[in-house]
Design brief:
The protein has one domain. Helix content is about 25%, strand content about 25%. The protein has four helices and six strands, in the order ββββααβααβ. A six-stranded antiparallel sheet has the order 5-2-3-4-1-6. The radius of gyration is 16 Å and the shape is globular. The two termini are about 15 Å apart. About 25% of the residues are buried. The model has no long low-confidence stretch (mean pLDDT about 90).
Amino acid sequence: MLQSIDRTPVHFAAWAFDRASPILCSGGIFPEIGFDGVLLHRMGEVEAVADFVALSVVNTPVGGLVIFTWVDPSPSASRLIDSLVAVPDAAKPNAIARFVFEFFENVYLEPAWWEALPNDTRSIVKIRARAAADVRSGRPEYVLEDDGITLLTASIASYHCA
């Protein structure tokens, strides 16, 4: 694929925030659970082919930017993105934050943002972050459901996909 310069199987979904994100991240995972709680892949199933999705959460001069990329065929990655698209825009920034803390280790937090969080919220974030570091433990299907905790106050400014 890369040698032939055929990029048609490479897909992306990108959401721009209306302000900078205090949470930045870069990494890749094998999607296990969709934002709707549907099991996509059970880690440890050696007979199943795991799909891969990459995520970057960066800041630009006009606000935060969340970019998912994957290569088709990748049914689990496509299903993950479809489940995020279905999340109402007002809930997307916090859904993405839950996803970042639950599945990624390479996360940067703005210190002032972290210090301003209530102690109980910091405790919940720490629990999610520990889960990201423990690939041996299975996650319950409800792990990405809205838990009522506001981590990001950003709004979705735009969405693009290909």
